[in-house]
Each structure stands twice: as structure tokens, then as C-alpha cells.
Amino acid sequence: MVRGRRLLSSHPTVAAPRLLGARLVSDSPEGRVALQLTEVEAYGGQGEDPGSHAFRGLTPRNATMFGPPGRLYVYFTYGMHWCANVVTGPEGSASAVLLRAGGVVEGLEIARGRRATARSDRDLARGPARLTVALGLTGDEDGLDLLDPASPVRLELARQPLPAHIVGPRTGVSGAGAGTPWRFAAEDPTVSPYRAATPRKQREAP
DNA sequence: CTCGAGATGGCCT
DNA sequence: GGCCATCTCGAGT
Question: Looking at A39-48, A51-60, A167-176, which range is the least confident one?
Fold first, then answer.
């Protein structure tokens, strides 16, 4: 998919809105689950974006970000959650787009089984950690080529992206990148509710 | 709907 | 040791 490669080689703030409406497919022994992406966030590269894992350079965790565009970058956070990104920009630039939410368009029963606590179908992949659970993604899938038709996890770009109804600051990221829009969301009930970054509460003194 | 708080462990300075 | 690209639950408006 040449057009996909070229798009994903661009800066993450350019590629991110074009991913709205894209189809993300995950095949497993259980079967196939596919999402239509509705919410994403851009993360810049080394030295560019203080909110990015790549800001301080290459580490074992973020190595996939330094690879070619179109790769799946999955990382573990908060001691219990996985989050999925698409690597963008030229190889070595280490930028990426976080996949924050989507609507299940295939494999509804499988997704419901994986997300037993979801109150409704719109919550199945509403939020970055819920999205990875619905798709069955963990660190095992880190580094997969999303544009390879033989890959079990694939990204199929929409010919016509969904309009970016929300363009603004990122969720849960403080300070960084004022002046650049990093978060993009379609007008859709699966878009996660915006929550500004909240400082962690301090423990009480004894 | 909103808000607050706890869970829980890897990563990096 | 401090900081997380979060989720769930309970209680309040």
C-alpha cells in the first residue's frame, strides 16, 4: 500500500487526522476483530516533544518508534495497561500516533468477551487501554508491520477520512507542545471523554 | 453526566 | 524514588 507508506512517513500531526475512519484489523485464533478509528493523538520525536516516549532518545522500550513508519508500537503503562500506536515519520524520527478509540465494526462477540466490564458496545474500544483489550493486543504484537497484508494486525486507511471534529490538546499530557494541535477525534459516541492531566495526589504525612 | 481515589509495576534520572 | 499517553467503581450534581 504505497499511499499508506507515504502518508505514514509524514509528521505525526499530519498523519494523525488522516487515520480517523481507518480500519484496524486484528486476527487471532479466536477470530477477527476490526475497529473504525475515531480518536488519535500525535507524539513527536527525539528532542521535539517532551510528552513523547522518544523525547530523550532511544531506550529498550521505545525502540520500535525509531524504526520505519507503519509499525505497531505497543507499550505497557500504569502497571496494568497496554497502549497501541502507529509509528510515523521517516525512519529514525521516532514519532508516532496513539490510537485512543474506535468503534467495533467486526467481531462484536469476541470484543464483548474480551471487555466483559464494558457497560455498552460503544465502550468496547473507547479509550487507549480498552482498545488494546478489545483487539487482543499486548507487547507480543509490538513491532508488527501494519501495512503488510500478511500481518495479523493491519491498518487499512480510509479513502475519505472522517472529519476531525475535535482538534486540541492531548489527554493526560501536561504542558508539552502548546500551539500545536496533537489530538484529533471524529464526531462519534466512541470518542473518549476528555480529561485534563491531573497531578498525582501526594500521600499524607504520617 | 462529573469527580476523586486506588490499583499496580516498569521505566528512567 | 517519582512518574506515568489509564481504568473502574462509588458517590454526588
Answer: A167-176
Q: Is the CB of A43 under 7 A from strand C?
A: yes
Three cell numbers written together for A134:
478489545
Enter the C-alpha cell of residue A36: 473504525
Nearest Cα neighbor of A130 from A114, A146, A144 is A114
pLDDT in tens, A2-42: 578 899 999 999 999 999 999 999 999 999 999 999 999 99
What are the pLDDT digits (tens) for A153-164? 999 999 999 999
Is nucleic acid strand C under 7 Å from A93's C-beta?
no
Task: Determine, yes or no, domain membership for A191.
Answer: no
Between β-strands A183-185 and A72-77, what pairing exists: parallel, antiparallel or unpaired? unpaired
Domain count, chain A: 1
Here the CATH number for the domain that contains residue A9 is: 3.10.300.10
| Residue A15 belongs to a domain | yes
